[in-house]
Every structure is written in C-alpha cells, then in structure tokens.
Amino acid sequence: MTELIHVYCDESCHLEHDHASSMALGAVWCPASHRAMLGRKIKALRATHGLAPEFEIKWVKISPAKLDFYLALVDLFFDEPMLRFRGLVVPDKSALDHGRFGQSHDDFYYKMWFQLLNWLISSEQRLRVFLDIKDTRGQAKVSKLHEILCNANYDFDRNLIASIEQVHSHDVPLLQLADLLIGALGYAQRGLADSAAKLEIVKHIRRRSGLSLARSSLLREEKFNLFVWRPQA
Length: 233
Prior knowledge:
Elements: E1 3-12, E2 23-31, H1 35-48, H2 67-79, E3 84-90, H3 105-118, E4 125-132, H4 138-152, E5 161-167, H5 173-189, H6 196-209, E6 224-228
Parallel strand pairs: 1-4, 3-6, 4-5
Antiparallel strand pairs: 1-2, 2-3
Helix pairs in contact: 1-2, 2-6, 3-4, 5-6
C-alpha cells in the first residue's frame, strides 16, 4: 500500500527582477497520518514561548526577542523523525541566460520546482503538495506544475502526485516551518549579516544539519537535503 505524504512548499526571492541576487525553493514533508500531531507540537512550542495562537512563523519576523522560540523550532524539526526537508537554491540569478535556452523566467521557475519535487516521487508513496498562495496567477502556476510533474513521471491517472493545492500559510504550521528553513537558506546564500538573530538561526541550522548551506548535500541525504543549482558553463 502506498503511503500518503503531505508536502508543504514555499519560495523566496523567486521573481526575476526583485533586486535579490539568489532564489530559494523548499519543501517540508511528513506522512499525512502525522500531520495533525506535528502541527500540535508546533502550536505547543509557540505557547510555551508566550506567543499568541495566531502568531505566524515567518523568516521576516525573526527578532532577538523571539530568537529562543525560532531556535527551538529548528530543534523540533531536526529532532522529529517524521519531518524532512529538501531545499533548492539558485545562488546568482544574474547569471541566468534564459535566451540561450529559449525559455522565460517562468519556464525556469517551473524547471526548478520540477528539480525539487521530482526527487520526492516514488512508487511507494502518494503525494499531496501544498503551496503558499502568493498572487492571483497562483492557480495557473499550480496547475501547470502538476501537469509537468505528472507527465514526466507517466502519472496520467495522478496516482503518485494526487494534487497540488494552494493554501494560506497562516492556517498551516508546517508551511510556516518551510518558510523559516527557506528563509535561512536564502539569507546564507546572499551572505547577509544585518540581523544577529537571523545569523544565529543560520548557524544553528548549519550545526544541526552538518552542512555549510553553500554547497549541495549528498544526493541520498534524507533529513535535510539541499541542491545548489548552477548554470551550465
């Protein structure tokens, strides 16, 4: 019997002209049967640190006052065996030459999501993928991505990739966790140092993962898998 897996995806600085040098995509996933339990653990951690139930976990909200909470959340991810993460980073968007490959930036965007999500696809599991709602064009992007992934894996009946859906991140703690990990990847790749609290989070992820965050992990790495994409010479 195939296991149902929930995959929570987010992105950072993915637009072509957003004045950010790099882009990052990422996904946190877990067995669907553990989704509610893991969500409760995150909510309990939030309460333990005196944060309101409606407080949304976001990379942009990291501050010295909330640093202990965010460090504890990173530990929750690494200590919880049911949680896994895969990230993809494009270090330098200015090096992209879409014309050379006859593609638009949107085409490239889909290719990167394909690179990230295709690694998760297996005959032993069935995926439901959830993406944070970003803009009014989101549904068209989601439908196109679903089509590309299914066609590439001959999944015409959508048995492997059951759905790709848009959700609001403030309703989904595991999607908020994805935002945190992706934010850290992007911050590390851009070499930023304008926030001591964010630097502590990056350092803590480096310690717990054993990765520099500047280079790809081993392909077989399951807990914190990272692919740093670089253009062909």
